Amino acid sequence: MAWLLLFSAGFVEIIFALSLKYNQGFTKLWPSIVTAVSGIGSFGLLMWALKTLPIGTAYAVWTGMGAVGVAIMGIILFKESADWWRLLSIGLVVAGIVGLKLTDSQ
């Protein structure tokens, strides 16, 4: 259950980070509301997962999921570079997330 909470927190973190781009410095109402709600939701889910998961593993997975998700969405939504170095780097972060998950016994 803790891993499901952590992965949910990671997905909500992606929404949070993307909404920062759309709220334009908190000048747009609805994107700003999405930023606030998703930020609180992501932190809340992370805190809930931390009741049973090791903090080092959980925090690294949470930030890694956010980084990978936002990098991929940046390529899709904002036409950011998709050169092979960038994709390789994203793949390395994914490998780290998988490795941390595999080394945790929960």
Which helices and strands appear, and what pairs or packs with what?
Layout: H1 2-22, H2 29-49, H3 55-78, H4 84-103
Helix pairs in contact: 1-2, 1-3, 3-4
Structural classification: mainly alpha
The parts where pLDDT drops under 50 for at least 5 residues are: none
**Global Rg:** 15 Å
Q: Please work out how many helical segments DSSP would assign.
A: 4
Q: Helices and strands, in N-to-C order?
A: HHHH
Provide the domain count.
1
**Which sheet architecture does the biggest sheet show?**
none
User: How would you sum up the global shape?
Assistant: flat
Q: How helix-rich are the residues, as a percent range?
A: over 70%
- Looking at the chains present, what oligomeric state does this protein adopt? single chain
Tell me what portion of residues adopts beta-strand conformation: under 5%
Number of strands: 0
Distance between the termini: 9 Å
Mean pLDDT: 95
Key attributes of the depicted protein:
106 residues, mainly alpha, 4 helices, 0% strand, flat
Q: What would your notes on this structure say?
A:
The protein has 106 residues and is mainly α. It has one domain. Helices cover 81% and strands 0% of the residues. It has helices spanning 2-22, 29-49, 55-78, 84-103.
Put the structure in a nutshell.
With 106 residues, the chain is mainly α.
